[in-house]
Every structure is written in C-alpha cells, then in structure tokens.
Write a structure and sequence with these properties.
Helix content: over 70%
Distance between the termini: 35 Å
Bound molecules: protoporphyrin IX containing FE
Protein name: DUF2269 domain-containing protein
Keywords: Membrane, Transmembrane, Transmembrane helix
Structural class: mainly alpha
Number of helices: 9
Organism: Actinomadura spongiicola
Radius of gyration: 21 Å
Length: about 180
C-alpha cells in the first residue's frame, strides 16, 4: 500500500512506516523508563538527605540532587514528549483522538513545565545547603518541598504507563462509523 493510501486509511498525519514506528516506539519507551528511573533516584537522594545518619553523606545527597538531576530529567521528559508526538501524528492514534493519548500529552507537558518552574529554581539553595550541612547550616524551606517532585512525577508517570498499556476510554469524539450507526438508529 502506498504511503498516501495508508495515511488516508488510518487518519495519520504522515506514514511512519513499520521500521521507523518500531524505532521511535523503542526510543519512547526507553526515555519513559529513564525518566521513571531518574525519579526513583531523586526519591532516594531526598530521603537520604533528610533522614540519613551520616551528615557528610546527607550533604553529598543534596549536592548530587542539585548537580545531576534537573537536565537529565528534563531531557528524558522532552525525548518522551517528542517521540510521543511523532507516534501520535504518525499512527492512527492521533494526539487528540483518543483519551489515553490526550491525557498522556497533558501529563507530559505539565511534568516538563514543573521541572522548569518548580524544581530547577530551588536547586541552587539545595546545593549550597548540601555543601554547608557538615558545618551545621540550618535547613532552608526548599528542602521540605523536595518530597513533592518524586511523589507527583512517579504517580503521574505510573498513570501514563498504565494508560499506554491499557489504552482505556476510547475516542474523544466518536469515529465516522460510530456516528453513522448512531444516526441510522
Ligand atoms: C507521560 C509520559 C509517557 C509515558 C510514561 C509513556 C509510556 C508509553 C509506553 C510504555 C508505551 C508502549 C505501550 C505499548 O506498546 O503497549 C507508549 C506508547 C505510545 N505513546 Fe506514550 N508515554 C508517555 C507520553 C506520551 C505522549 C506525550 C504521547 C503523545 C503525545 C504518547 C503517545 C503514545 C502513542 C501514540 C503510543 C502507541 C504507539 C504505537 O503503538 O505505535 N505518549 N507510551
């Protein structure tokens, strides 16, 4: 079947082709997995920083959090978003055709925005606190806010994974065939 006929038959914006679809899907799943892994690492660092018994290790956990987390997390989130967009536009799923894709799109956009506006700005303070902790620095407000990012992000990404696998709720607007059947009644 030609690319034009495939696009017309499936309602996709372009014909991704089998090989490219598989390549982009693998990249999508790997980036989502990396994102979840980084979130787990953030949870471990936050818990170690707060409840660790060795003050040096607690300080290092905060320094690692401030140094290594934001950009890899944003990078994996953006790769997941970009590959998700390509998969949506290049297949019959579309972006705003099925609830499970539309909800994942919203979750991905909200999470990437939160990394930039809620997580990144406090990181300088967290790193400074980590460096000064062994010297007896007092805890800044940014530290207690650190529990939210991994909790919110892990919940949302688990939901997105469940949606991707279960594909629930069907179409946002009924398809042509369903509309015709409804009108015939
Ligand atoms: C929020 C983070 C996301 C996670 C954790 C995630 C996870 C996944 C997973 C695990 C699959 C494979 C499902 C399977 O093959 O059974 C998948 C497929 C898919 N995802 Fe995502 N996804 C995310 C974001 C997005 C976004 C933002 C979009 C679109 C804008 C999207 C669109 C798709 C599509 C269309 C497929 C099916 C591809 C196909 O079958 O060819 N995803 N996603």
């Amino acid at each position: 079947m030609t690319a034009t006929r495939t696009v017309r038959r499936t309602g996709a914006w372009f014909d991704l082709g089998r090989r490219w679809r598989k390549t982009v899907l693998v990249t999508h799943i790997v980036s989502a997995g990396a994102w979840i892994g980084i979130d787990v690492m953030v949870a471990v660092l936050v818990l170690t920083g707060k409840y660790g018994t060795d003050v040096e290790v607690r300080g290092l956990a905060y320094e690692a959090l401030a140094t290594f987390v934001v950009w890899p997390m944003l990078g994996s989130g953006l790769i997941c978003l970009l590959t998700g967009l390509i998969l949506g536009l290049g297949t019959r799923w579309g972006l705003l055709r099925y609830w499970w894709v539309a909800v994942k799109l919203v979750l991905n956009l909200v999470l990437c925005t939160l990394i930039l506006v809620a997580l990144r700005p406090g990181m300088g303070e967290v790193g400074d606190y980590g460096r000064d902790l062994p010297g007896g620095a007092s805890e800044p407000a940014a530290i207690s806010d650190l529990f939210y990012p991994p909790a919110v992000s892990l919940t949302a990404l688990t939901l997105a994974t469940v949606l991707a696998v279960a594909k629930p709720w069907g179409r946002i607007r009924p398809g042509r065939r369903a509309r015709r059947a409804r009108d015939d009644v």
